[in-house]
Write a structure and sequence with these properties.
By secondary structure, the chain is of the alpha/beta class. It has helices at about 15-25, 50-55, 65-75, 120, 150-160, 175-185; strands at about 1-5, 35, 80-90, 90-100, 105-110, 130-135, 140, 165, 190-195, 200, 205-210, 215, 220-225, 230-235, 245-250, 250-255.
């Protein structure tokens, strides 16, 4: 299975132009993949000044024009796309990731752990961490700041994910290294698709995005990583079934060796002593 990320610099508020750029990049014959992962908020840009502005740039899923265009591309190319979008759902606006394929919309995830000013803009995610079987692999999704909560990746691993697709707009320098640990401790692949460039709107602090998009193996090996600057479309072939091999030693299984009764504080319960 060939998996890929596309790292680029979306222009704020230019959804149509950003969509055209993405489709053009993914249509290059030299870069054919089975699964593409795009950055967080890859069409709208990131630095919204208000909830109302975010709603103005949001779309309904799957009826929105860009979602339908991604589905059309998948149908024509027989591939799958994970993309971070600004979603309008009634009066709510969500920081959302979609999984689409040749037959249409497959999965939706709404960012649970909102970062910084996102708490003033977006409604917190209201959907559980889901896993979707696309045949060649079982796909889970996280968005950006979810990386700092190990429970997110672990929840996806326990649900059977082979690959975590991870759209991001990173401004902190820690995630890329942390995702190596997330893959190692859960025995899963991860595709972290970041953006580059900067945004500085409405007198707010400049946000400089850190690039470094990467694909990490189920044993914590970085297979490919983009630079901190510049556009990058990287593709690598993997065997996703290796993510189902959870033995670290002949006696140690990553998931089966857990002892949840000693972790009860994680669930708001007293820990057994």
């Amino acid at each position: 299975m060939k998996i890929a990320f596309y790292q680029f610099a979306p222009e704020f508020g230019r959804g149509g132009e950003n969509l055209t750029k993405i489709i053009s990049a993914l249509s290059q014959p030299a870069f054919e993949a089975d699964l593409y992962v795009l950055p967080e908020l890859c069409l709208s840009g990131y630095q919204f000044l208000s909830r109302e502005e975010a709603l103005a740039h949001a779309e309904e899923i799957p009826a929105g024009e860009s979602c339908q265009e991604f589905i059309r591309h998948c149908r024509e190319r027989n591939c799958y796309i994970v993309a971070g979008l600004c979603e309008r759902a009634g009066d709510d606006v969500f920081n959302t990731s979609i999984l689409v394929g040749p037959k249409g919309l497959i999965g939706v995830y709404r960012k649970i752990h909102l970062f910084w000013d996102e708490k003033k803009i977006f409604s917190p995610g209201d959907l559980p961490f889901g896993v979707w079987d696309i045949g060649a692999a079982r796909i889970g999704m996280m968005i950006c700041f979810d990386w700092i909560f190990p429970e997110a990746a672990r929840s996806l691993a326990l649900a059977g994910a082979d690959i975590i697709c991870h759209p991001v707009n990173l401004v902190l320098p820690f995630c890329q290294q942390a995702m190596i640990t997330r893959c190692l401790e859960n025995g899963i692949y991860a595709v972290t698709a970041n953006r580059v460039g900067f945004e500085e709107r409405g007198g707010r602090d400049r946000l400089t995005f850190t690039g470094g998009s990467q694909i990490v193996s189920s044993r914590g090996d970085p297979l490919v990583r983009a630079g901190r600057e510049g556009e990058s479309l990287q593709i690598i072939e993997i065997d996703p079934l290796r993510a189902r091999e959870k033995m670290i030693t002949p006696e140690n299984h990553i998931l089966d060796d857990r002892r949840p009764r000693f972790y009860r504080r994680l669930y708001g319960e007293g820990e057994e002593r």
